[in-house]
């Protein structure tokens, strides 16, 4: 971060901390169902994108590794699964570089930060809603990211015929 960004961040952290200290003395109502829903979707949407990219890249790259390197070297499917380790490394580098784009897209879609007080943000209901959003979001994304399997039926049949 640049010095101006650091100072802005520090100023906001101090403001957030002073609000939190002031609210410690007040009893805060738990978040409303609408706020919890907002927290859920705020956390779910980026994870749908991440799960989609994660699974789609894993399927495409894994299939290509098995069809190219596996066939050329004449290795078994089990040895081809060892190549999946390299696939995971490739996937990690791709997904970590794409994470910023997924989050930027989510913010462009109008996904605003939920309006919660610091005490409400730390309540168990809010944390549960956030974790459920992430878990369900990545699950939906992974299911949607399985779409490349629709196109791989022919290659796998050709591979079986070659054996």
Automatic annotation (TrEMBL):
**Gene Ontology BP, a term:** regulation of cardiac conduction
Q: Does the keyword Transmembrane helix apply?
A: yes
Q: Is Transmembrane helix a UniProt keyword of this protein?
A: yes
Superkingdom per UniProt: Eukaryota
Q: Output the Gene Ontology cellular-component terms.
A: membrane; mitochondrion
Q: What is its main location?
A: membrane
Q: Which InterPro entries match?
A: TMEM65
Q: What UniProt keywords apply to this chain's record, in alphabetical order?
A: Membrane, Transmembrane, Transmembrane helix
Where located? Membrane
Topology versus the membrane, per the UniProt entry? Multi-pass membrane protein
Q: Transmembrane stretches, by residue range? A: 56-76, 88-111, 131-153
Protein name, per record: TMM65 protein
Instruction: Please tell me the species this chain comes from.
Output: Syrrhaptes paradoxus (Pallas's sandgrouse)
Q: What is the lineage of its organism?
A: Eukaryota, Metazoa, Chordata, Craniata, Vertebrata
